[in-house]
Amino acid sequence: MKRHICFCCLLFCWLPAIAVPVPAEDIHQLARAVDDHYNHLRSLESDFTEIYRGDGPERVESGTLWLKKPRKMRWEYRSPKEKLFVSDGAAVWFYLPEERQLRKTTLRKLDDLRSPLAFLLGKTKLENELQGLSKAVDESPLGAGNTLLRGIPKVAAGQVSEVQLEITPANQIVRIVLMEADGATTEFRFAGWKENLELGDSRFQFTPPPGVETVEGELGP
Predict the structure, then answer these.
(1) pTM score, two decimals?
(2) Which end of the chain is more exposed for a tag (fewer CB within 10 A), N or C?
(3) C-alpha angle with apex 171: 148 to 122, nearest 5 degrees?
(4) How far apart are CA 152 and CA 116, in angstroms?
(5) In this structure, are residues 110 and 217 in contact, taking their beta carbons and an 8 Å threshold?
(6) What are φ and ψ of residue 112, in 5° steps?
(7) Is 129 left (phi over 0), alpha (psi -120 to 50) or beta?
(8) Binning pLDDT at 50, 70 and 90, where does residue 1 land?
(9) Are 149 and 160 in contact (CB under 8 A)?
């Protein structure tokens, strides 16, 4: 099943969006607070869990994510098997050590559900990306005191229909749920966010191991 989606595409849900009867200004204020939180950061680190639900058994993967302004990211998957997804802000590599398989593309051409997070630092504006941003009332956040927002993407509406964002009282995004139009969902859970770390650019560069052939084109598992 195709899992690559462009951003504007932190998106999800076969259920219709249900707006909670709270003042719109409260939602605007929360969205602006999240924007302001991320737009003032230089770097981020977090443990992540990725949960995919679709055809076949549920798939759960986990690892560590690093982000650095501008548009640098590194996803190190450690469980159930190692793989690496890394961008230096221009080029993007996806490496499967077990299969000695390496794929490469450019960030500009990248069509992948992980790519939006590269833009959290410096370009976040939730209400520009998600229409009808509202508080979800048919589902509960995982964390006590958190707020669960949902919105309809302005682009790629044919592929996905809604995104849900779980936001802490400190205005951090700790969960993103994306639902594709065919009913498959991908959920990212983040834990232990560390902000404004000193991260060297070498962390976001990749040199192919000897004997590994590089294939240019579409990325992703």
Answers:
(1) 0.83
(2) N
(3) 115
(4) 15
(5) no
(6) -145, 140
(7) alpha
(8) very low
(9) no
